Amino acid sequence: MTNDKQQQEEELLILKSILGETITDLSNENDQFEIDIEFQLSRPFHLRLIDNSNELSTVIQHLPPLILTIHFHDQYPSSIHSPTFVLSSCYLSRTYLENMCRKLDEIWEQNLSQPIIFQWIECLKEEFSSVNELCLTNLETNNENDDPRAMSSYEPDQVTRIYQQLIEYNQEIENEKFLHEYHECPICMSNDISGRDMIRLHKCHHTFCRACLHDYAQMHINTGSVEWLLCPDTQCQLALLPSEIKIIINNNELYDKYERLLLQKTLEQMLDIVWCPRCQQAVLTGNESDNLALCDQCRFAFCKKCKKTYHSQTLCAMEQELIELKEKRRKALLKWRGLKLTEDDEKNLLREFLAVARIENSTRLCPNSMCQVPIEKNEGCDHMFCVRCRTNFNWSEAKDQTTEAKALFEQYGNDLDKLN
């Protein structure tokens, strides 16, 4: 065995002990091998995309490895010629790789006839140790003196695809790192939970343990409040993705219930949707001036207001009853004001009016003309939110249902002792 060959084998053996699985033999002669140069970046940096139609930017901290392929010739390291090498990358431009090749040549010239591979690796890593930005553009670059050692699959017309691939790679590494670390759950306050027992939400990246998220999701599904399945962080409140909820609950039957409730809640927010009273299917209503609703499932024609059999232009029984109640109330008010009542009768009648007034005084109609659902306010600021149509409004500007009842309530308030 020649001295050069022995030095090659010793250098390769040392490299394998340092680099581990990132070095791969390409021949049985121990003279060709491939090294995945992984960059250990100390901090996140900006990844930018600039092309004719896009200008995007994001922050990442992990990049795919740079591939360094080496071939030892027979006279290495004693010869003045360096080992043959190729630099390969899917996201670095050919121009950048050519510059890196020249730097490796300079290092060899400064260390002639010495083992050089480890110094090359350190040089390539050092180039990325303090990177602040990586910019992907679709600008064509023409270089008449192409260096064949620079192998790049970077194509200017594919920068959008490369941009997405780098983001996906960074996410994969972050997820893998997350799984092998221990974390604290902000709900149960346990601080020694393995990453495999934690879930990191996709939209906001907040993390919680599986057990807490399972109980949280199960509670909302069982109570029917699936529209409030939001990030539990009080400063976040972004909605959980259906794919995340499926992983969290890990129960097909419960997830099917979630999907049914979510569809129901979504349809309820559509103001031209009513529910068939016979088969409970969603029915799309038509003309606003017509109360007709026809179920496509069971062919039942019904009134979209009272949910009874369709009754054309006649008043709903519910509306008729309301008119009669209002008329009775009007007559009772006239009787109370114009007739001589005993003191006890007067107090009893006033109690009845006050009970109704108390309810009406604490409610306002949703200002959305297609909704008009009564909303009660018991505390808090003036800002209100309709859970049916998701309209935001101010309580003080919403419509009073009965100003007469309001006046009566304001006169007596909650103090029924005034009637004793």
Automatic annotation (TrEMBL):
Pfam families: IBR (PF01485), RWD (PF05773). GO terms for biological process: protein ubiquitination. It catalyses: [E2 ubiquitin-conjugating enzyme]-S-ubiquitinyl-L-cysteine + [acceptor protein]-L-lysine = [E2 ubiquitin-conjugating enzyme]-L-cysteine + [acceptor protein]-N(6)-ubiquitinyl-L-lysine. Residues 10-131 form the RWD domain. CDD domains: BRcat_RBR_RNF14 (cd20341), Rcat_RBR (cd20336), RWD_IMPACT (cd23821). It comes from the Eukaryota. Residues 181-420, 185-232 form the RING-type domain. Its EC number is 2.3.2.31. The keyword Nucleotide-binding does not apply. GO terms for molecular function: ubiquitin protein ligase activity; zinc ion binding. Keywords: Metal-binding, Repeat, Transferase, Ubl conjugation pathway, Zinc, Zinc-finger. This is RBR-type E3 ubiquitin transferase.
